TrEMBL record:
Entry annotated with the keyword Nucleus: yes
Gene (UniProt): NOP16
Coiled-coil intervals: none
Keyword list, A-Z: Nucleus
Protein name: Nucleolar protein 16
Places the protein is found: Nucleus, Nucleolus
InterPro entries: Ribosome_biogenesis_Nop16
Main location: nucleus
Similarity comment: family membership: Belongs to the NOP16 family.
Species for this entry: Cyanistes caeruleus
GO cellular component assignments: nucleolus
Protein's GO biological process: ribosomal large subunit biogenesis
Length: 165
């Protein structure tokens, strides 16, 4: 069986490549992308995950952050008379921004699309509450049945675009 020519040839060193830039870009590509923008901007690539999270005041391991109290641990704290020291949070703004973002009201996602709302309003203006005429209308490209028109346009129905909240 013949060999592939490209595999056996001598690999030449490429002098016109910046090795430092290649190494940095490879490290950047290999590192996972952090979804939270607040954490991503405060992240220091030269520090470990535990150090970065400790500086931001976030917990790496929830079991260590909020431990289950054990009787042995309580006795040791009482015998020493000292409480374990608090960790220094150097980047408290990360937690503050995350709390602020979490406290914002959630956008309603249960409404229908703007096009469908306009279409239902148009049909009600032209044909009123006669859902059989809605289903037989020439502009009914979705081929909706009268019952689906009734559900879509009924303001008391929870899936309606006109639902009162």
């Amino acid at each position: 069986m013949p060999k592939a020519k490209g595999k056996s040839r001598r690999h030449k060193y490429s002098y016109n490549l910046n090795r430092k830039r290649l190494y940095r870009s490879a490290r950047r590509r290999a590192a996972p992308r952090i979804a939270c923008s607040h954490i991503r901007h405060a992240w220091d690539p030269h520090k470990s995950v535990a150090q970065n999270l400790a500086e931001m005041g976030l917990a790496e391991d929830p079991n260590k952050a909020v431990p289950i109290p054990k009787k042995l641990l309580v006795r040791k704290v009482e015998s020493d008379g000292q409480q374990p020291g608090k960790k220094i949070v150097r980047k408290p703004y990360v937690v503050n921004e995350m709390e602020l973002e979490a406290s914002l009201p959630e956008k309603k996602s249960n409404t229908l699309s703007r096009d469908l709302i306009d279409y239902v309003r148009y049909m009600i203006q032209n044909h009123g509450e006669n859902y059989k005429v809605h289903s037989r209308a020439r502009s009914n490209s979705l081929l909706d049945l009268p019952i689906s028109w009734m559900r879509t346009s009924n303001p008391l129905c929870p899936g309606s675009c006109f639902a009162v909240s």
